[in-house]
């Protein structure tokens, strides 16, 4: 018997999570919120927060944890921006990073 393999187009994290948020039930939103708090998000922070707010509003969900997720995602964005600025402002760090990468 031959197996069929389905190839699923992979999206960047922020695009995938935004799609999930837009269709999520309240229970699923709670799970996604926990995931967002525990995950390193490479980009798309503002778009994620926008989708999060819109879906929570649609669902009539006005819990304190909603704000916590928004604040945490935006804090994570600021931390990434600060780390990037610090790395760019110190040229020696760039060389150290290259050495670590090549090791």
Describe the structure.
- With 103 residues, the protein is mostly helical.
- It has one domain.
- The protein is 75% helix and 0% strand.
- The chain has 5 helices and no strands.
- The longest helix has 26 residues, at 64-89.
- The chain is flat.
- The mean pLDDT is 87.
- Residues 83-103 are annotated as: Disordered.
- Largest beta-sheet details: none
Radius of gyration: 18 Å
How many domains, as an integer?
1
Order of helices and strands: HHHHH
Give the N-terminus to C-terminus distance in angstroms. Answer: 46 Å
The helix tally amounts to 5
Structural class: mainly alpha
Proportion of helical residues? over 70%
Beta-strand residue percentage: under 5%
Number of DSSP strand runs: 0
Poorly predicted ranges (pLDDT <50, ≥5 residues)? Answer: none
Rounded mean pLDDT score: 87
Shape: flat
Write the SSE topology.
Layout (H helix, E strand, L loop, with lengths): L12 H11 L2 H13 L6 H15 L4 H26 L1 H12 L1
Q: Main attributes?
A:
103 residues
Brief synopsis:
The chain has 103 residues and is an all-alpha fold. It has helices at 13-23, 26-38, 45-59, 64-89, 91-102. It has one domain.
